Recover the amino acids of this structure.
């Protein structure tokens, strides 16, 4: 657990929420029992980004769940970093496992999106993580390093790493109720940090936050949060419920 890396908890709502259910989520997010030491970001569906930004306390930032690799144009159905900023979003999640595997986004496209979102001035949560068969074939590092390479190649200015939080989300743990053990999470985060130290810089490796995602709950977050290389969480299902507050407070 690092003192120099500010604990970070993101809520990825995925394709969930309507005005009625979002108003319920806003109630607990706008409550007064959130650990002020945790940096908090929520990612509603882009349709509701502006609504959430307007209603949410300013100590919580808002993210989009994806963005395309250019500023504007004939890309039906997509949104751009410029538009995210325009409606009050500061962050964007890129390369989420569902973008990679449901929507077949390749590493190269995710890299291009990283480069463009940085140049547009957003803060980024790029996601990496192996599938079950890759873990079973001992390919966790190979897969994560390859995903990291596509991301890192598009971070042109070393100072831009200050605007990046890496999410390690093993695909087999997402939405399955099968959380990584604290040891599995620590091992993966440590090896990603070592990769960054070797391929980007030791200083960036020391400062960059690596958060864990995949079936994080109020029940399992505390032990995970004690791991030295786990700097926070990216939460799916549990971010829609009031237990998200317990996850925000995992180090309280
Ligand atoms: P769950 O917390 O629902 O497993 O989802 C994790 C995730 O994909 C967050 O981005």
């Amino acid at each position: 657990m690092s003192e120099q890396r500010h604990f970070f908890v993101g809520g990825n709502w995925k394709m969930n929420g309507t005005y009625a259910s979002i108003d319920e989520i806003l109630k607990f997010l706008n409550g007064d029992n959130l650990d002020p030491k945790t940096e908090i970001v929520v990612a509603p569906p882009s349709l509701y980004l502006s609504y959430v930004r307007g209603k949410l306390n300013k100590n919580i930032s808002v993210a989009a769940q994806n963005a395309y690799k250019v500023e504007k144009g004939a890309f039906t159905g997509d949104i751009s970093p410029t538009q995210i900023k325009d409606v009050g979003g500061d962050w964007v999640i890129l390369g989420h496992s569902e973008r990679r595997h449901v929507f077949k986004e390749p590493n190269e496209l995710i890299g291009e999106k990283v480069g463009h979102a940085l140049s547009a001035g957003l803060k980024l949560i790029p996601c990496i993580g192996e599938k079950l068969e890759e873990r079973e074939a001992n390919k966790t590092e190979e897969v994560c390093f390859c995903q990291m390479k596509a991301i890192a190649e598009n971070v042109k200015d070393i100072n831009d790493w200050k605007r990046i939080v890496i999410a390690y989300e093993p695909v087999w743990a997402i939405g399955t109720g099968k959380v990584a053990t604290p040891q599995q999470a620590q091992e993966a985060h440590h090896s990603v940090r070592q990769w960054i130290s070797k391929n980007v810089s030791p200083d960036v490796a020391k400062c960059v936050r690596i958060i864990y995602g995949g079936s994080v709950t109020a029940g399992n977050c505390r032990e995970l949060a004690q791991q030295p290389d786990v700097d926070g969480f990216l939460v799916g299902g549990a971010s829609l419920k009031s237990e998200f507050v317990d996850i925000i407070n995992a180090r309280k």
User: Anything to note?
Assistant: The mean pLDDT is 97. The domain at 8-248 is CATH 3.20.20.70 (TIM Barrel). The chain has eleven helices and eight strands. Residues 12, 96, 169, 174-175, 213-216, 234-238 surround 1,3-dihydroxyacetonephosphate (CB under 6 Å).
